[in-house]
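Aim 2 progress update. The chain analyzed this quarter is reproduced below.
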Amino acid sequence: LHSFPTRRSSDLHIGFSSSGGTIPRYVLAVLFALAGTTVQAGIQAVIAMLDPAANQSFASYQALLAAVLLSALFCGRGPALLCLALCTLFHLFFFLEPIYSLQIASAGVLAQLLLFAAIGLMICFVGLQRRVVHERLQDSAQRTQLIIDTALDAVIAIDQHGVITEWNPQAEIVFGWKRAEALGREAADLYGDRKSVVRERV
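Predicted structure tokens:
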């Protein structure tokens, strides 16, 4: 019988998906870019309403860069770079003078565009690194679960409160509890139940 403390699974899962699901990852990246542009336009409209004289050049980044980060986290490298390219174009077309044009009218506009692209690349890199770490954690958790499930000994995991969080098939044989019955119970219950099982066998 092996019993060891562990974290709850909810503490380990970050909530990202490595697969595209029913929506292809590139389509999702395009949707992120469009949503970021829409939100950014709303932010700038609110700023203009509150202070018509405000310089909004600093305010045309946040939602677009957030879209790039989400694409890196949820979609992977290729879709994230696509999202960054689209956000850079949308940034130029909708938010830099002259608006509704892809013309780079001055060195200042070019500098803003390059700055946006550089920041976007850094955010993309951070998001991709976090995605890789999450995928490695998932792989490690899957390997650990496989070892536990195929172990010849009873393996029980408990959290810091003494509640059972893992219960392998061999533990079902030893204690007579199904996994669904054992999870969430107090570990102290094991010993009283095991004594009763021993008495019945004797």
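Helices lie at 9-12, 25-50, 62-75, 77-95, 107-150, 169-175, 179-182, 188-201. Confidence is low (pLDDT under 50) at residues 6-20, 197-202. These observations will guide the mutagenesis experiments scheduled for the next reporting period.
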